[in-house]
Amino acid sequence: MLNFLALESISSWFPPEASYQAFWMDKAFLGILIAAVFAFVLVVGLAITFVIGNRGKVAIEGQEVNQLARGLWVLGAVLMAYFAFSSNFCGFMDTTQAPYGAYEIDVTARQWDWEFTYPGGHVTDTLHVAIDRPVRLNMQTQDVVHSLLIPALRVNQAIIPGKISRTWFQADMIDTFMLRSSKYSGEQFADMHTAMITHSPAKFTEWLEAAGDIFAGRTLPEVGEILYTRHGCAACHSFDGSKRVGPSFLDMYGNTFNTKEGVEVTVDAAYVRESILTPNVSVIDGFDPVMIPYEGILDDREIEALTEWFKSMSSFADQGEK
Amino acid sequence: MNNNIAFKYLGLTAAMFLFGGLLAAFMKIGATSSDATSQAVLNQMLTYHGVVMSFLFLIPVIPTFFGFTMLPKQLKIEKMCCNGKPGFTFYSIGSLLVIVSAMKFAVSTGWTFTPPYSLVDGGALATMSAGLVLVALSWAMTGMNFIQTVHKSEVNFFDMPMLSVSLYLNSFLMIIGGLVFSIVIVLLSLANAFGIGPFAGQFSTILLQNSFWFAVTPLLFFALIPAVGIISDVIAGLTNRTLVSKKSVTWSLAALAVLSFASWGTHIDQGKTLGFVFSAMSLLTAVPIALITYSWIATLSRGEVSCQPATRFTIAFLVSCGIGVLSTLFTNNMSIGSYLSSTMFTTAQIHYLMVGGVVTSVLAGLHFWWTDITGKEIRLSLGKLSGFLYMVGLNMSFFPQIIMGTKGLPQGLHTIPVGFETLNWVSSVGFIVLSLSLLLVVFNLVTSTDTTSSE
Hints:
- The structure holds 2 protein chains of 2 kinds.
- By secondary structure, chain A is an alpha+beta fold.
- Helix content of chain A is about 35%, strand content about 20%.
- Chain B has 15 helices and 2 strands.
- Chain B starts with a helix and ends in a 5-residue tail after the last strand.
């Protein structure tokens, strides 16, 4: 497990400051902390001094109040409250409105993982951003309330169902940071964390190009498995033999099935292609014709990759080659 | 006599405190052991820790015990307006239902019941909500009893001791807050069971948060009003004089009671304008709090302060409730508050306010008035020792959580992430010290001996 925050030392109260917004928030925190410690020492110190120091002293009679002292005391409290109210006011207003031209990333939160979609349509489960460039996150939840917490950026934005919650930041430190949900959301809440990886602008462009091309450096079956995850095939199709809404992909390629109409089909490249693009034409017996057509979503190369992936996990693979 | 019902209440609230405390202990053990408690079990323990401690212990503890014992004494009347038995019945059946729900239909929604998460498992909330509604009714009954009793008394309102004043003001909070709370909880369990009512559906989050905190902020956070009442009377008693500028403390408590209904929305995500309004409303409490502390310090300054266990607990109150109140300066700042929301910082804050404020004041009051109430004498040296241990344990338990929060650790994780082990270890040791000091207090009170005074 990576120690994202480098938190070994107790001496520092805060994670690293990876944006100028974090810097200003920490400054405000320190300011209020000094005021609070002063008030605390004053009240508790005076109380302890009087409890210990007044031993054996003759009591002062009367109830008259030193109006000046009380006035100053209350004025001090009011000033402290005003200081707490107004500290980093501009910093807060700054975080509510992203600058024009910010790089936009769509965030989907669900029980219990994150999905980040970049302008080109590329999807990742870790957040990659370029430093020195404002990034705006448009966040939606698919189920319950979540909250995006990136301690190093001092960002903690609740994601409420039914609306798009927005936040923005400008990272200025190249590293890997912790990103997690801070709103309790059920059973696997503690596992709802991932990483935010910051790159230099040049490296980020490079990364996006490389990552955007899923075929680069991968064999076709590997690409097939990525497509399986990315397009949510797992909702209906397993690849371990268990039956879900649709048939399992294990030992499917090359195998022979009966369709609903009683026609015998052997799963070959042509049948795979047909079942992806127009899935409800020829349905294997025992399943309902409920699949969404992937016409226009998956291209030829991607279908080929999926076919190769099916082949790689079928013991009948050679029969489909005929 | 009223003492009888008061001790029944004290026994039951103490049992609830023990139950909630044991849950906290299990969570601590679970988080550090190698085979960690699963998140599902932790969620249930967390939910019941919050529900039991807030609604079955913190809200009723001061009014029920100190109300029924001290109110007649302070108001110089024979007995309370009502005997409090129906309220006690409601409270005990309600608590029983909540405990039964923990055993049979354990809820894991978190004690703030935020939908849509709290809407899963249809019908799961029913038993617990039935219990909570009965408990809320018992708050309202207790509140009406106190208001009637105070109105019946011959003593002028501004001449009353602060505990009576604070219980009178708190009664309004318990009635209004309790009734709104029971409406909210009934509507929520309807949404949970049948999918009907205002809280049904995906988009009821903000509505429920507003309704819930409108009811619970006065009840829970302003359970500090009677705590302030106890500490004011204890300070006056320790110095053997009337509180300096008592009238300003009375008015300050009234102001806090009013502000408690205007500061519910601080941590709800509903836009910056409302955020600033609630932030300002919460920070306005600085004025009454300053007036109260000024009066305390001025009272302490004017003569000898008797040194006894209650003195230690009063200092412990100033330290821990002081940290709790000052920590609200951070959470009420819009920028810092949004970062710290639902992190361990807020956990530490609520514990500093509720344990450091409410529990400490209960202990101060128990030590100070024990002889008055029971006619028995406690061991002074043991009381002082437990007071000292209590303060050490409390701060060791909860101060590390403040740092965990600023480092960005959210609430409610079932394991301790890498880098937080040392802080968690300190906090666990503190928890043991705190439990030990509370055991000492119980031992001291239970074994207190009859005074040989002429009675």
